[in-house]
Amino acid sequence: MAKEKTKKRCQNWSKSEKAFALELIKFQEEIFERFQGANQGKLKKKLCWEKIALDLNAFVNFQIFAKVMYIV
Question: Are 28 and 48 in contact (CB under 8 A)?
């Protein structure tokens, strides 16, 4: 049998993406740490994660857009 070459995985997150994600989470730290009741706390955390996801996606999309504009 011939040796199969495996592709080396690339990073999923850049250093700037990791740093930005951590800042977004730290900004909402109080909501994640404080108990606010079962239903109300669950809803606030869900909304908080959705906002973090939107902000992080906007950051990543802006980085991609900036790279494309720089190349052109």
Answer: yes
3-class secondary structure per residue, 2-37? CCCCCCCCCCCCCHHHHHHHHHHHHHCHHHHHCCCC
Query: What does R_g of the chain's alpha carbons equal in angstroms?
Result: 18
Query: Would the CA dihedral through 22, 25, 30, 33 be positive or negative?
Result: negative
Q: What is the pTM of this model?
A: 0.71
Distance in angstroms (rounded) separating the CA atoms of residues 70 and 72: 6
Dihedral of CA 56/62/68/71: which sign? negative
Nearest one of 72, 34, 32 to 52, comparing CA atoms: 32
In this prediction, residue 6 carries a pLDDT of 80
AA identity, residue 24: L
- Quote the CA–CA distance of 26 and 11 in Å, as a whole number: 23
